Amino acid sequence: MTFARLIPSFVLTLVCTHALAGAPTIDAPLPKLSITERGELTMTGDEFGFIPWSSETGLGKVHVIQYFGANVKDKDVFKPLTDLLQTSFEPGAVNVTTILNLDAAIWGTTGFVMSELKKNKRLLPLAILVLDDNGSGVIEWELGKAGTGLMVLDDKGIVKYFSRQALSEAETASTVELVRANIKK
After folding, report:
1. Which of 68, 83, 97 is nearest to 164 (CA)?
2. 73: left (phi > 0), else alpha (psi -120 to 50), else beta?
3. Strands of 95-101's sheet in order across
4. Tens digit of pLDDT per residue, the chain (185 long)?
5. In 10 A of CB 76, how many CB atoms?
6. β-bridge mates for residue 40, sequence order
7. Which residues does 2 contact at the CB level (< 8 Å), separation at least 6?
8. Which end of the chain, N or C, is surrounded by fewer C-beta atoms within 10 Å?
């Protein structure tokens, strides 16, 4: 096959792949996101490593995914919700995944980000912590200029809640109740 004949099929593949992505939509499956560079932080004893991560990880259980930049400005954007989830549910009752956009980190802070990530994994070994080196989640999930997103998924991966910004107290409380209602189903 000549190079000229490959171009149309490459463009078609690219368009079709992008068409499967998009902003999360309520009552629809979460658009797939795969992070293969770095990905999910794993811990075995005192050793850390990374494995590829996919948004399809965690099906079968209610799942809260928070995505934000790996910087001081964004680190607490969804903290009130994650703190309330910790006190409202038994460990392991709900999957909570934190995806850090390393592309948004200030130059030269990767070592600090890694140190904080490892510290948090030691404190919360059941937490799913993911590093997105290239900021692919911002693009694939259309998270906009702020590059933040919070999704609540039911046990089948259907989006039940989506926000691109910090939650008010009322939104935080109603999101916890939404998680509780979906766990009871």
Report:
1. 68
2. alpha
3. 47-54, 34-44, 128-132, 95-101, 63-69, 149-153, 159-163
4. 444 444 444 333 443 334 456 899 999 999 999 999 899 999 999 899 999 999 988 788 999 999 999 988 888 999 999 999 999 999 889 999 999 999 888 888 888 999 999 999 999 888 899 999 999 999 999 999 889 999 999 999 999 999 999 999 999 999 999 999 999 87
5. 12
6. 51, 130
7. none
8. N
Where in the chain are the domains?
A: 24-184
- What does the radius of gyration of the chain's CA atoms come to, in whole angstroms? 17
Number of helices (H) and strands (E) in the chain: give both, helices first. Answer: 5, 7
The closest of 118, 111, 93, 97 to 184, measured between CA atoms, is 93
Cβ atoms of residues 114 and 142 within 8 Å: no
For 133, the token pair is: 């080196």
Distance of CA 24 to the CA centre of its chain: 12
| Beta carbons of 92 and 126 less than 8 angstroms apart | yes
Alpha-carbon distance of 163 to 24, in angstroms, equals: 9
Predicted structure pTM score: 0.85
